[in-house]
Predict the structure.
Amino acid sequence: MKKIFAGNLPADMTEQELTALFSAHGRVRSIRLARDIFSGACRGFGFIEMEGHEARAAISALNGMELRGNHLKVNEERPQTKSFRGRRR
């Protein structure tokens, strides 16, 4: 199971649209679209879970694709690293 990051999504993107976009390359296990708390609009990114070989196919097919004027950024999710800022003085 791989988690995919999809960025630069249009503000009016829905979970159904994102599912349809990725399901063309395999079975989508789950989708989580980041939404603004107040307006409910898409914040421009989301996470998709797919099987390994299907995820790789989706990444290679959708990365850089134009969708409503936005060039999608699709890659395998990498865990965030915490930056060390040192000790406060």
Residues 2-76 form a domain with the Alpha-Beta Plaits fold (CATH 3.30.70.330). The chain is about 20% helix and 35% strand. The CA atoms of residues 21 and 37 lie 24 Å apart.
